[in-house]
């Protein structure tokens, strides 16, 4: 049985610009053939277990010839696989998508094309440049700036000048001088506004606005890097007036967020809203312990517990999934009070229609244990379904209450994750990551395994609490701790560190930096 091929445009880089349809199809892919210009945020969406085929394709550096790429798509589809051809931008705009469909059509392989947001529109928009404007121009022309070495351009510069529209050149950085000279030679005003836009929609976004006559000189002076696009037209003069991206508090910052692979990271979403480019990589995986005779036995006596204690959102999820599997629902918890280690765990309970009776002021195991010890009475029974590597401080505090019956049941294991798509170690060694955000000691340890051999002093770590910070300190990272163990507080800490609010970052008496 033949498979199918989807040509998907991944957009310019920002994962928020990846289409909903593209994301859905990618999540179901068995084989992913991807280009170098696909953004890291989109690469992170590739499902685990999919076969990865890197075909490179940057200017002058192709990992695999186009003819071979075409054949790979056919061969994998003939194996009965769901094949995604993942391209930066849009597959039909200088993406050679048409060439790939020629062979698929010839071989009678079914396919679909899912358009992507093109950098020709998105990158100027992220730089405050309208490519059309009623007062300046009413047409847009997108031209490939690429040409084979030693050959002349097959571009009618005279016709382009006559359009009096906005010109967008893709893949033309190395030929910037030839493009500008060609336009001027064919009658364009040398003072026509022009811009070169580097790595749009990423933390490395840079905008150089000049004129057609001076753009090459300014580009060299400001050391513009590829990939970049060239925009020529009166709309470029509006860039400073309409600039919006750099006004966001975390614009130009790249933040690493570690997380369990199973969880959608609201932390990453909050940072992206502030303008950060977020590299969201798994550090740990949580695996429910199954079968779990101890947990199953606790379900038979749920009515006898005075307190149920949850120490993580994952613990809540695993417990209620197992409860459902056992054919029970929340009515089985009647009479028991609920304790949660923090607001995140409390929200996980609220999502199931339950409210925590106790959440400590400080969100860690020791504080939770102390708070419980103050309200529990001798003889009461407590059930703690949590990670196998749970914090001992919690049970140590509870042990101070006489005749308290505590059942501390491991419900899930924590395993360390690694991935092959993005070289995290190189990102830090080359100074591409501004801060790493850690939400548990486990994610710190998982990160350390993934970047083994890294000089950890290169890592600026923003930690959610004391235990997480202690794990980062032990590795020699430069550490900062949020004032409260909440995601909002962590985001505020990152914002203070990155912005002009560094006066809000304080060193407490014990040497800890708090923000």
Question: How are the elements arranged and paired?
Answer:
Blueprint: E1 4-9, H1 20-27, E2 31-34, H2 40-43, E3 51-54, H3 66-78, E4 82-87, H4 97-106, E5 111-114, H5 119-126, E6 140-144, H6 157-163, E7 166-170, H7 176-185, E8 193-198, E9 206-211, H8 215-221, E10 228-232, H9 239-242, E11 254-260, H10 266-273, E12 277-288, H11 293-299, E13 307-310, H12 313-325, E14 337-340, H13 343-350, H14 365-375, E15 381-387, H15 392-398, E16 405-416, H16 424-429, E17 435-438, H17 441-450, E18 460-463, H18 466-474, E19 478-481, H19 487-498, E20 506-507, E21 513-514
Helix pairs in contact: 3-4, 6-7, 12-13, 14-15, 17-18
The Rg value, from CA coordinates, equals 28 Å
The amount of beta strand, in percent, is 15-25%
**Shape, per Cα inertia axes:** elongated
- How far apart lie the N and C ends? 58 Å
Helicity level, as a percent range? 25-40%
What's the mean pLDDT score? 91
Structural class: alpha/beta
Q: Can you count the beta strands?
A: 21
Q: What does the largest sheet look like?
A: 9 strands, mixed
Number of helices: 19
Q: Provide the low-confidence segments as ranges.
A: none
| Neighbour order of strands in the largest sheet | 14-13-15-16-12-11-17-18-19
């Amino acid at each position: 049985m033949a498979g199918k091929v989807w040509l998907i445009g991944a957009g310019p880089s920002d994962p928020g610009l990846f289409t909903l349809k593209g994301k859905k199809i990618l999540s179901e892919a068995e084989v992913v053939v991807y280009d170098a210009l696909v953004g890291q945020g989109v690469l992170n969406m590739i499902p685990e277990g999919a076969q990865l085929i890197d075909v490179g394709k940057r200017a002058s550096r192709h990992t695999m010839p186009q003819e071979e790429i075409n054949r790979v798509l056919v061969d994998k589809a003939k194996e009965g696989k769901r094949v995604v051809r993942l391209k930066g931008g849009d597959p039909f705009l200088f993406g050679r998508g048409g060439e790939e469909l020629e062979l698929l059509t010839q071989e009678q392989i079914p396919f679909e094309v899912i358009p992507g947001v093109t950098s020709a529109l998105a990158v100027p928009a992220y730089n405050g440049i309208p490519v059309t404007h009623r007062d300046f121009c009413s047409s847009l022309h997108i031209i490939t700036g690429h040409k084979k070495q030693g050959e002349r351009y097959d571009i009618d510069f005279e016709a382009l000048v006559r359009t009096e529209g906005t010109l967008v050149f893709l893949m033309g950085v190395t030929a910037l001088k030839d493009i500008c000279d060609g336009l001027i030679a064919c009658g364009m005003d040398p003072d026509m506004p022009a811009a070169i836009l580097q790595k749009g929609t990423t933390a490395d976004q840079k905008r150089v606005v000049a004129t057609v006559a001076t753009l090459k000189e300014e580009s060299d002076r400001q050391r513009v890097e590829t990939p970049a696009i060239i925009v020529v037209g009166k709309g470029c003069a509006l860039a400073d007036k309409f600039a919006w991206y750099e006004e966001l508090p975390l614009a130009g910052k790249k933040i690493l967020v570690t997380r369990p692979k199973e969880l959608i990271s609201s932390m990453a979403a909050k940072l992206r809203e502030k303008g950060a480019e977020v590299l969201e990589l798994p550090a740990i995986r949580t695996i429910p312990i199954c079968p779990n005779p101890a947990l199953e036995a606790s379900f038979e006596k749920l009515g006898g517990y005075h307190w149920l204690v949850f120490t993580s959102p994952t613990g809540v999820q695993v417990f209620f999934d197992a409860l459902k599997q056992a054919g029970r629902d929340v009515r089985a918890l009647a009479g028991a009070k609920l304790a949660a280690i923090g607001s995140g765990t409390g929200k996980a309970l609220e999502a199931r229609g339950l409210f925590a009776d106790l959440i400590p002021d400080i969100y860690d195991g020791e504080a939770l244990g102390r708070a419980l010890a103050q309200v529990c009475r001798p003889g009461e029974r407590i059930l703690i379904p949590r990670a196998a590597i749970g914090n001992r401080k919690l049970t140590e505090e509870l042990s101070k209450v006489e005749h308290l019956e505590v059942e501390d049941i491991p419900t899930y294991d924590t395993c360390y994750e690694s991935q092959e798509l993005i070289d995290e170690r190189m990102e830090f060694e080359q100074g591409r990551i501004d801060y790493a955000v850690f939400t548990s000691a486990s994610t710190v340890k998982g990160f350390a395994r993934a970047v083994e051999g890294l000089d950890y002093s290169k890592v600026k770590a923003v930690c959610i609490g004391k235990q997480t910070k202690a794990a980062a300190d032990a590795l020699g990272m430069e550490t900062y701790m949020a004032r409260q163990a909440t995601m909002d507080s962590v985001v505020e800490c990152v914002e203070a560190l990155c912005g002009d609010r560094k006066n809000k970052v304080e060193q407490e008496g014990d040497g800890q930096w708090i923000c």
